Each structure stands twice: as C-alpha cells, then as structure tokens.
Amino acid sequence: MITSLTNQKIKDIAKLHMRKYRKYQYLLTDEAMIFEAMRKGLVDKIIKTERCAIDFDDVLEVSDEVMAKLSDNEDTEVMAVCRIKEEETDSERIILLDDLADPQNIGTIIKAADIFGYKMIYLGTNCADIYHPKCLDKAGVSLFNVSTKRKDLDLVIEELKNKGYRIYATGLRKNTGNMYKTQAHDRLAIIMGNEGHGIKERYYTLTDEVIKIPMTNIDSLNVAVASAIVMEYYASKQH
Questions:
Q1: pLDDT confidence of 184, banded at 50, 70, 90?
Q2: 44 CB burial (10 A radius; 0-12, 13-18, 19+)
C-alpha cells in the first residue's frame, strides 16, 4: 500500500488532473463510468483503498489520505487511469462543435447525442477538453457510447459533403431559416458554435443551410440546451 503523497507513481497519476498531461490517459472517479470503461477495455490502472474489492489486473492500493488527495474527495474509494480513445464512426447524424469553451456544455451535448442517436461528435481544435472532470460528470457513461474526435472542422465539413451529408449551421443571420421548416435528410451534420460568439463566419459559407430555433420572449439559449432541441428534432424527422 502506498501511503506517501510524494511517491513518484502518485505524482505521475496526479499530473493527469492537468490538461497538458492528458495526451493519452485521463482519470475517472465515477464508479459506473469505471465499470463501463473496464467493459470497453479502456482501463490501464485501478487505484483503490483497501475497502474497495474491485478486481483488475493492474491495481495500485493507496491509503485513504493519498486517495483523498488524488481525488479531491475524502469519500472516494476507487479511481481509474483510462486510455484516451479517439475514433471516427459512421453515423447518419453527426454533431460538430466549434470552439466550445465550457466543458460542462460539451459533456451535456455528449449525453444528448447518445440519447438521440448521434454516434459521432467532432470537436474543433479549440474546444475545451472532454476529459475535464466537469465534462466527464455531465457526459457520464454516454462518453463510451458516442465517438469523439478533435479535428480541423474545415476538413471535416469538406469530407462530410463529399460523402453526401447535408450540413446545417446554427446561427442568427439574414438568411437563417426556421429549423422546423427544413427538410429531412438521410445524412446530416449540425454545427453548434461558441457560447459567446457562435460559429466562425467562414463556416456559414461552407454549409448548406443556416437554421435557428424559433423562440418567443428570449433570443438565445444555452448551447447545450439548443443542441438537445436541434438533435431531437432531426432525429424525430428521420423516423
């Protein structure tokens, strides 16, 4: 059992709390997510206290004090070092996220994508880290049901159009159309923009149609809420 906070293994694990060290691995503290990650074969190491009876090949047992320091929660009994797995999955419905800054919004969008059958999310290169604890908390096990990849959205849009996808951009412009009056398409991708300034201007020229959610009394929605509404609508149109 490791009892020292200065142990090198503990120091290396603690580094995963910082984004710059999360290139290949990240930390999970939620037990349901840990078990799902184990089922998917994505767990590299389990860190646990002696009270936890979880079974795994590579286990590091630590004292309560070390666990509380690592997890920032004195009630935590198990953590997992997980392997980052980015992949591109074929899906009839795809979400593109442009420069989203809040990891909680990204996590909520991942969960909504899982609910409404969007199996692929592309994150622009400046999006927040999806392995941030706040994103993981909102996404839950949906993180393992939806494929994600950080990629230049200009390239993604070009590739999707070549594959026959219709690309929708959300925003308020002179040519913006009412979402509920648009046509259903077998393959579609939807771009959601930054919480403050929306989608980059150039993406409006690369997409097929600009859409908005008609609203009364207010003129904007949280991007996670808006994403869920848009996803639900187009999912229902394809049934």
A1: confident
A2: middle
